[in-house]
From TrEMBL:
PANTHER family: ZINC PHOSPHODIESTERASE ELAC PROTEIN 1 (PTHR46018:SF2)
Family listed: Belongs to the RNase Z family.
Keywords: Endonuclease, Hydrolase, Metal-binding, Nuclease, tRNA processing, Zinc
EC code: 3.1.26.11
Chain sites annotated for binding Zn(2+) 1: H63, H65, H143, D213
InterPro entries from the UniProt entry: RibonucZ/Hydroxyglut_hydro, RNase_Z/BN
UniProt catalytic activity: Endonucleolytic cleavage of RNA, removing extra 3' nucleotides from tRNA precursor, generating 3' termini of tRNAs. A 3'-hydroxy group is left at the tRNA terminus and a 5'-phosphoryl group is left at the trailer molecule
Entry GO MF terms: 3'-tRNA processing endoribonuclease activity; zinc ion binding
The species this protein was found in: Porphyromonas macacae
Protein name, per record: Ribonuclease Z
Length: 304
């Protein structure tokens, strides 16, 4: 199975603590890197995780609160100093272009590579990015400002050649394409060898849903059904529900309820409020509802 790793570079919320960094994750899918959110100082943990700056394909910003985007200028400057030449694509909600324009006006002339900025429509789920390895769609979230989550789906082949069977039946290489299209093979003598004898079913595509800052939003459930891993913010405990509602955030219990309703395989919580000395209470609260829950930590790698 090909690589699909999630690197946690930051899982804290807006107020700085000595334990957690602001929001940032990097997905390593078949050797290509994709960043989701870029909180202040993310490049420090990027290096600690031994990730390659030149392999970063695109950055996806969920919303324009500082703990999710203040790391972009520093990251871009460092990549230029390190000799990056490939285009970097940046996706974000309304305002992302103005944010990047202000940075580029002051420092853009010194960059060694180009930046392409794309504005996301946060009102609905839409396909926003696609390459040979993945397709990424936006997820409409409910926060104090425009905010989008992201659904990342790997592209996988529905069929794989069974090489031993192909060799046994002496199938010519020129017939491999038609076999992978699902066709049977007919020999020169007219014998039909069924496709099922020459192929193996591919693994179901793995899916990762990233739900950044959001109030409890059951409308997400049909969009993230049965994903392999769901990241859902869990800023507060249920005892602080009034504060969660006031700030358009979720509690750990609410994150677990979304995971349970969507029948996801695993839940990853993060974006912990600085009011709690540790995340153990948040994790316990979520696991009471959805046992397959883990708590994000910096420099953690989760393999799908």
């Amino acid at each position: 199975m090909e690589k699909f790793d999630i690197h946690i570079l930051g899982c804290g919320s807006a107020t700085p603590t000595t334990k957690h960094w602001p929001a940032c994750q990097v997905l390593d899918i078949r050797g290509k890197l994709y960043m989701i959110d870029c909180g202040e100082g993310c490049q420090y943990n990027y290096r600690r995780s031994r990730l390659n700056f030149s392999r970063l394909r695109a950055v996806f910003i969920s919303h324009l609160h500082g703990d999710h985007c203040f790391g972009l200028p520093g990251l871009i400057s460092s990549m230029s100093l390190l000799g990056r030449t490939g285009i970097l694509e940046i996706y974000g909600p309304e305002g992302i272009r103005e944010y990047m324009d202000s940075f580029m006006k002051l420092f853009g002339a010194r960059l060694a590579f180009e930046i392409e900025v794309h504005t996301i429509d946060c009102s609905a789920s839409r396909l926003i990015y696609e390459d040979p390895s993945v397709k990424i769609s936006s997820l409409p979230l409910k926060h104090r400002i425009e905010c989008a989550g992201f659904l990342v789906e790997e592209k996988s082949k529905s069929l794989h050649l069974d090489k031993e069977s192909c060799d046994f039946f002496q199938i010519p290489i020129t017939a491999y394409k038609q076999i992978l299209r699902g066709e049977d093979f007919v020999t020169e003598t007219g014998e039909t060898i069924s496709n099922s004898r020459l192929t193996k079913k591919g693994c179901p595509p793995r899916k990762y849903a990233y739900c950044s800052d959001t109030a409890y939003r059951p409308a997400l459930v049909p969009l993230i059904q049965e994903v392999t891993l769901l990241y859902h913010e869990a800023t507060f405990r249920q005892s602080d529900l009034s504060r969660a509602r006031e700030t358009y955030h979720s509690t750990a219990a609410q994150a677990a309820m979304i995971a349970k309703e969507a029948n996801v395989k695993r839940l990853l919580i993060g974006h912990y409020s600085a009011r709690y000395p540790n995340e153990e209470g948040l994790l316990e609260e979520a696991k009471n509802i959805f046992p397959e829950t883990i708590a994000a930590q910096e420099n953690q790698i989760i393999r799908l």
